Amino acid sequence: MAVLHQQHPAHEHAHGPACGHTGILHADHIDYAHDGHLHRAHSGHWDECEPGEHISHSGHAHEHGSGCGHPAVEHGDHIDYLHDGHRHAAHEGHWDDH
């Protein structure tokens, strides 16, 4: 999955296990959901950590939503659901990996 390197300017909050934001394992690092963005530590600053392409999650029969049992995280203009080490988002009749 391609990840864009976009620094998040003026982000003075230090994320970590006790910061109060949801931590999401993403490849070799942890993203923190904060203000509708996903942030990751990178070389002494915080980057936006967003996928650079559309990746459909095939074979995902589970329907996420209120009460589905998976954590919901605000992500831009939609909700991602944390499930099996992925973030899933509804998109045009299927689920995407974010």
Structural overview:
The protein is an all-beta fold and 98 residues long. The protein has strands at residues 6-7, 23-26, 29-34, 37-42, 45-48, 72-75, 78-83, 86-91, 94-97. The protein has a five-stranded antiparallel sheet, with no helix packed on it. A four-stranded antiparallel sheet has the order 6-7-8-9, with no helix packed on it. A hairpin with a 2-residue loop joins strand 3 and strand 4 (37-42). The protein starts with 5 loop residues before the first strand and ends with a strand. The model has no long low-confidence stretch (mean pLDDT 76).
Portion of residues in beta strands equals 35-45%
Gyration radius, rounded: 14 Å
Number of continuous helical runs: 0
Number of strands: 9
Protein structure class:
mainly beta
Give the topology string: H per helix, E per strand: EEEEEEEEE
Average pLDDT value?
76
Label the overall shape.
Answer: globular
Side-by-side strand order of the widest sheet: 1-5-4-3-2
The end-to-end span amounts to: 9 Å
Helix content: under 10%
The quaternary structure here is single chain
Largest sheet geometry = 5 strands, antiparallel
The parts where pLDDT drops under 50 for at least 5 residues are none
